[in-house]
Amino acid sequence: MHNTPIAVSVLTGFLGAGKTTLLNRLLKDPALENTAVIINEFGEVSVDHMLVEQASDGIIQLADGCLCCTVRGELVDTLAELIEKSQTGKIQPLKRIVVETTGLADPVPVLQSIMGDPVLARMLRLDGVICVVDAVNGAATLSAHEQAVRQAAVADRIVISKAELAEPHEEASLRARLSVINPSAEVLDAGRGEAGVSQLFECGLYNPQTKTADVRRWLGEDQAHNHQHHDHHDHDCEGHGCTHHHHHHHDERVKSISLVHDKPVSYSTVEMFLDLLRSTQGEHLLRMKGVIEVVEDMDRPLVIHGVQKLLHPPAWLPEWPEGPRGTRLVLIGYDLSEDYTRKLFSAFVGEPMIDTADGAALSDNPLAIAGFKA
């Protein structure tokens, strides 16, 4: 049996953004030894020069120790088959799996496949979502396709490709737009060599080497600043050659909400808040990440990570990162009600707003929840 869960990274991005080009380059890095790559078609990945043997149906063994396999049936079945082969010695033990989505895919169902299956949830850990955005066509794609906005919104890392082909002001405008859609993602330029293995992988919450930096990044104090300026962004561009305000139809539906509470809370309070939030807003939640100071164990932060209604098994970090303690939650949603979410959070952490129930009233009398209008 595997004692250490296998890290899974999801590579997403719209058609023609450059996912496969990035993947081909990453596969040549020795650091990705013992990695399996799940793709849709072998033809998209140039593995011929590295091909060693056909390890089994649908799985190709590469010379550098990587595997490539195609999605056959459900992604869950493909992942389970890979894990079984890794555990039984039919293939080498895997350290990492990279899932490349199709260009039109919403990555959220892929994340749900990884986190929603009870067996897979124990065997795998979601490392992070990498989204590739084309500097030349990215702005037009975001304007035309809701899926492209959702891909960028759920990402931990956004890789800008083809920047050398775009005008400088186009890339700057695209970066500004992406920072509004997803203020917690790190934006990297592939052309400048910023999108290597070390920058793209181990960007989750559970890696001992990098967790502190990432916790601080997606819980950064500047997120609240970014979010407060969200509504004004369109107008700030007026007269500066920026067309940002003309095509925000999809962008404006994405919200990144930071919830902050500076005192420890009980584990049961966290559970009740998350249960109620997921039951009422689950369809609108794309991702949720948080570090929580729990009264039952204040020496270690509790880390939570969710996708829509699914919650990854909570994990304890060995120690607090530098900076403030308390509860820091980041919710990324599509048509998510910020007013409802903030009122609900305030009620549960004991800071009820005017004309709202407190946590005790909500938990003692579930009917009181009807007073909250999503």
UniProtKB/TrEMBL annotation:
Catalytic activity line of the entry: GTP + H2O = GDP + phosphate + H(+)
Skewed-composition ranges (Basic and acidic residues): 224-241
Pfam families (UniProt xref): cobW (PF02492), CobW_C (PF07683)
Top-rank taxon, per record: Bacteria
Region of interest (Disordered), residue spans: 224-249
UniProt xrefs under PANTHER family: COBW-RELATED
Protein name as it appears in the record: GTP-binding protein
